[in-house]
């Protein structure tokens, strides 16, 4: 066996060991350490109220995170979307899990739901920022990871495909968090309707280029088969319940109807077991890894590139591990100083620019005012002139009118005189005649 | 005792009644014959978000493919970007009685991200029908029978969340209960267990009361004690939890309409399973004429009074009027 050297100096062909070295024990050491440390997982649930989110969470983790006293949607009065988180510590077989459930009451409940996703986006970015700051600190011993690792999105079982709200939400969040779409209240549909609905949703997701959580490829045959089975049943249609019902002597968790009992854990009835196994038993670690390596890195590179002017490779495609280059290998503290200085100078420049702009605007305005004043003056003059001209014209006409009147009166007098004369002559003639 | 034969056949009567039968009650038979010749008209509007089973319920109610989906071949079911109003008419007949049934569908209602004023096109449509009838009525040369396209009944589908009414539901019902008879139903009721259903119904009734929404049968239009008794029983069951289906399955040797799931078959007409039978009885078998009467004598009259009081001034439309205007004209 010829050992071949690659760039990193790593042997391509594994070397046979002469005896037992002992590093095969490494996985056990990691295992023991992790168990001592405990695990964390943050899960977000989003969907309109009344879709059974709280019931499903209770069923998944077999706890009463949402106790019966929790004010359900019927008692909610706020009209805006709020983001609430509740923590619970679950222990099983010596392993403890700190589970954080992030709930979004009020999502999609009002008449106008534009931007109802904004509080959720803000929350996720907030958590990323918190982690980024914690990572950049000098003292990094305690780093609590509260980033959202998985988002369960509940789709209303309308039977007609995705709603505009669903599409908008998923388009905005698929680059920030792992989205797993679920069909809520799956006992609404018959198996045929369910199949049809699932096809419609997957078609809609492809049409709008929404990137939901992809299951990782493995080399293991068994695992691949299981993953393929899950992929065929996406999106998962779930029913939730924590009430225990007797069916044929067996105690099952389910929902009791007059026509039968819908069993939550029966694979023929719904995909709940698949969801639980996938979420908790097999893919929890992968969800955390994808969040850390892809979504968080995307956020980080975007954030840091916005502040620094370094040539950063803003590669946003999934699965690429990109780290922004630090300038000249400076320590992060010095780098931050430089960033601050840059930022301050930028602000100064902006201030100056703004003052300039302001002055220019003031000058313009003054000029305009002066122009309009001159204009008004001119118009006033003109109007005065017009007025005088009219006045004179009127005067002329009045004079004309007076002259005409006089003439007319003179004529009248002449006519009157004539009439008088005529009447006199008539009288005279009459007198003559009488004689 | 002598029996007197009338148009109804044998009639038992006491002694001395032989000659006092006038035959006024024969008018019922005449009316019946005339009505059968004329036929009936019924206009039902269905309102609700897409995917709540409106078309299926219409098909189930009238035991035939009367919905918009059955008539139009839709290649792909796309949610329209604005609300459209589509009405399809059918002539159906049963035992010699003919009925012209018009189903008015409202695809796109409540499906957008921003659903402000989504009730406006619907209000406009209803008022337009009243307007058309009014114009025919005040014509100098009136038709013998004015074609009645007024919406007699509006079935509003409430999604089965199991918690309470959504703001959209409250807004819509508040505005439309003033112009049309609203019958709220809980759609896809096979999602709810019996306890959830009762809780949900109670919550809905409370909210309707709290918001002053008067759904059919309205309390103020009960004519006498008998009416009131019947209607009280109905009012305690509102809203009806319905399941629709137009497929038949074999259950216990009989062929029934239902939905077959892996854990059981839901029988649509079984009152232990859902309340479809009550809704059908209300709409068709017992209260159909009452619904039409209330529409023509109360809702239409209100509209008419409002219009005529506007004194023939040029009014744009009575539809989509701003809120304060509508409130000012309430009786």
UniProtKB/TrEMBL annotation, chain A:
PANTHER family: SEPTIN
Family from the record: Belongs to the TRAFAC class TrmE-Era-EngA-EngB-Septin-like GTPase superfamily. Septin GTPase family.
Bias-annotated ranges (Polar residues): 314-324
Molecular-function GO terms, alphabetical: GTP binding
Pfam families found in the cross-reference section: Septin (PF00735)
Compartments it resides in: Chromosome, Centromere, Kinetochore; Cleavage furrow; Cytoplasm, Cytoskeleton, Cilium axoneme; Cytoplasm, Cytoskeleton, Spindle
Gene: SEPTIN7
Compositionally biased tracts (Basic and acidic residues): 371-428
Any one GO BP annotation for this protein: cell division
GO cellular component, one term: spindle
Superkingdom, taxonomy of origin: Eukaryota
Record protein name field: Septin
Signal peptide: none
Protein source organism: Cyclopterus lumpus
Entry annotated with the keyword Cell membrane: no
Chief place of localization: nucleus
TrEMBL record, chain B:
PROSITE patterns tied to this protein: G_SEPTIN
Compartment list: Cytoplasm, Cytoskeleton
Membrane-crossing residue ranges in chain numbering: none
Alphabetical GO biological process terms: cell division
Classification via Pfam families: Septin
GO molecular function: GTP binding
Entries under SUPFAM superfamilies matching the protein: P-loop containing nucleoside triphosphate hydrolases
Coiled-coil region list: none
One GO cellular component, as annotated: cytoskeleton
Keyword GTP-binding: yes
Entry keywords, A to Z: Cell cycle, Cell division, Cytoplasm, Cytoskeleton, GTP-binding, Nucleotide-binding
Origin superkingdom: Eukaryota
Domain Septin-type G: 38-310
InterPro entries documented for this protein: G_SEPTIN_dom, P-loop_NTPase, Septin
CDD domains, per the entry: CDC_Septin
Similarity section: Belongs to the TRAFAC class TrmE-Era-EngA-EngB-Septin-like GTPase superfamily. Septin GTPase family.
Protein name: Septin 9a
Annotated source species: Cyclopterus lumpus (Lumpsucker)
